[in-house]
Amino acid sequence: MDSQQVFTFGQQSLYMLLMISAPILLTVLAVGLVVSIFQAATQIHEATLSFVPKIVAAVAVLAIAGPWMLTSLVEFLQRTLQSIPTVVG
User: Fold this and answer.
1) pLDDT tens across 25-65, in order?
2) What is the pLDDT of residue 3?
3) Which of 65, 3, 2, 1 has the alpha carbon at shortest distance from 28?
4) Under the phi-then-psi rule, with left for phi > 0, alpha for psi from -120 to 50, and beta for the rest, what region is 2?
5) Range name among 4-18, 43-57, 59-73 with the lowest pLDDT average
6) What percent of the chain has pLDDT over 70?
7) 24 contacts 61 by C-beta, under 8 angstroms
8) Where are the domains positioned within the chain?
9) Exposed (0-12), middle (13-18) or buried (19+): which is 76, by Cβ within 10 Å?
10) pLDDT of residue 2
11) Contact indicator for 77, 16 with CB cutoff of 8 Å
12) Global pTM value
């Protein structure tokens, strides 16, 4: 295994990490922004008001995009494990 293969594998891994985490992170970011604007407009600064909508949104995204995330991860893992003999040998 040469350095180019290591860098390619690392690049693919980081890309997969980004693709899998993006839906949840972007949703929680958007919900947090909306809640912050709501808190600033109404001057209600309750700590639980910012956490509960984020948790609900994250669970909803996991329920909707979870099968796609799991399928993508399983396919990536299968490709990685199947490429071991060609990389080592």
Assistant:
1) 999 999 999 999 999 899 888 878 889 999 999 999 999 99
2) 85
3) 65
4) beta
5) 43-57
6) 99
7) yes
8) 3-88
9) middle
10) 81
11) no
12) 0.81
CB 16 within 8 A of CB 76: yes
SS (H, E, C) the chain: CCHHHHHHHHHHHHHHHHHHHHHHHHHHHHHHHHHHHHHHHHCCCCHHHHHHHHHHHHHHHHHHHHHHHHHHHHHHHHHHHHCHHHHHC
Asked if residue 40 lies in contact with residue 22, where contact means CB atoms within 8 angstroms, the answer is no
Between CA 72 and CA 67 the distance in angstroms is 9
